# Entry
Amino acid sequence: KNQVEQSPQSLIILEGKNCTLQCNYTVSPFSNLRWYKQDTGRGPVSLTIMTFSENTKSNGRYTATLDADTKQSSLHITASQLSDSASYICVVTNSNSGYALNFGKGTSLLVTP
Amino acid sequence: GAGVSQSPSNKVTEKGKDVELRCDPISGHTALYWYRQRLGQGLEFLIYFQGNSAPDKSGLPSDRFSAERTGESVSTLTIQRTQQEDSAVYLCASSYLPSGRSEQYFGPGTRLTVT
# Structure
């Protein structure tokens, strides 16, 4: 069973609207959680990284939250733009294995005019 | 500076043929990773190189898959006797330190199609 589950699988929103993507994980012990943006035909690019003690982190219009107690994270996108259309991937690192990352399947976001 | 580069960007091959995929990491990055991304699936870890240590090959799906890295530079992923289920995007990433402690930077990937 995948240790990182993302929802929704896909999402369509109008340009200018906000949206929130969810990530639930069972990875333990927890080291850090990253959100990546992957444009079509490109490699993933890191948006945010959070450790156990961090509850929220922003990167421009992207704000990630982390609840380490419930093992949940969210990525909120404000005032969406057409260029936000991409796959958003949640990645959780196990602190016992510093290099092995646990990837979610991603949420495919389409922003329409 | 230059990011991680991969070649070729696309590769179409016939079932049973061997293929070689190349990754040029960011200069100075000691760690290099290969991943496979099947359509609609998350990234699967394949293999990890760290400096001169023995690589972690625990993610390789079969003995048809192998990878090499010369020092802290170029890496090649070889798939022998390709099968249709090998069709996927193969992503390479590098990091200055093991990824638990530093960011991984991904290349654009090689899209492999086995016909």
Summary: Chain B has no helices and ten strands. Residues 39 and 88 of chain B are 7 Å apart (CA to CA). The beta strands of chain B are 5-7, 10-13, 19-24, 31-37, 43-50, 65-69, 75-79, 88-95, 105-106, 110-114.
